[in-house]
Amino acid sequence: MPQIIHGDNLPAMRAMPDGCVHLVYADPPFNTGHAQRRRRMRTVRDDSAERIGFGGRRYREELLQTAVQFLDQYDDILEFLEPRLIEAYRLLSPTGSLFFHIDYREVHYCKVLLDSIFGRECFQNEIIWAYDYGARPGRKWPAKHDTILWYTKSPKDWTFHRAASDRIPYMAPGLVGKEKAARGKLPTDVWWHTIVSPTGKEKTGYPTQKPLGILERIVNVHTSKGETVLDMFAGSGTAAEAAARNGRDFIAIDRSKEAIAVMQTRLAEWIAKAS
Ligand SMILES: C[S@@+](CC[C@H](N)C(=O)[O-])C[C@H]1O[C@@H](n2cnc3c(N)ncnc32)[C@H](O)[C@@H]1O
């Protein structure tokens, strides 16, 4: 049964039995030191704006409202994460995987922590999610990637449905045959993927929402149909939607009531189907 749990993920996870999930996705606050805000925008006609839409008309984005959703600041992020990642390890099935999503500010400390919990031999990949959107500072290279660390419960045996991955275009399609170029290739550990478009259908308005395409790739390759995906820091419920769309079960935990409200709307269709 799909579940949305409102509350701190530590007691919620401690109440679950050993080995009950096949994939854990963890996208904790990145410790940016900022309050994360929900921004509501609207598109208005403006003949002097740069964005060109249907029929050559010009539009600009107008900010309607911002509201604080959660405070992204910890005195000691590792002290916060450690007991939660120990629970994630306990909850994983023998062939299960953890995908830990973080950015350049904390990834090196988190990698050392995860090595100590899972064992270095269970570290499988450092996935770079690369995008290109937003401000570009003038005096250093713009930071336009997140890091996703993949760990397995077992050092030898894990789920990896390679053929279930989506395929991506070749960088130089002219160098491969027509048939290969049309089929595309499997991704490497660098995943180019756009962010959730601020004006697109996928957007829920919840800050730090991750793209469904990234989560569907993880769910499809690293779990089988009918298995359970746990999202420990669920936010808008992207991992849960990826699971539900692809015939997997989900448990989504968040301590913010705004996140729970967003998920209840976003996941209503699948919760209704399952009950
Ligand atoms: C980076 S956001 C997750 C975004 C999500 N992956 C998405 O696609 O929408 C982190 C979330 O963790 C939640 N959170 C922080 N500490 C938590 C805790 N101890 N227990 C449960 N949720 C927590 C916050 O409320 C926030 O929604």
TrEMBL record:
InterPro entries, per database record: DNA_methylase_N4/N6, DNA_methylase_N6_adenine_CS, RM_Methyltransferase, SAM-dependent_MTases_sf
GO function terms (MF aspect): DNA binding; N-methyltransferase activity
Gene Ontology annotations of biological process type: methylation
Keywords: Methyltransferase, Transferase
Membrane-spanning intervals of the chain: none
Record has Transferase as a keyword: yes
Top EC category: transferase
Domain DNA methylase N-4/N-6 stretches: 21-262
Protein name: Methyltransferase
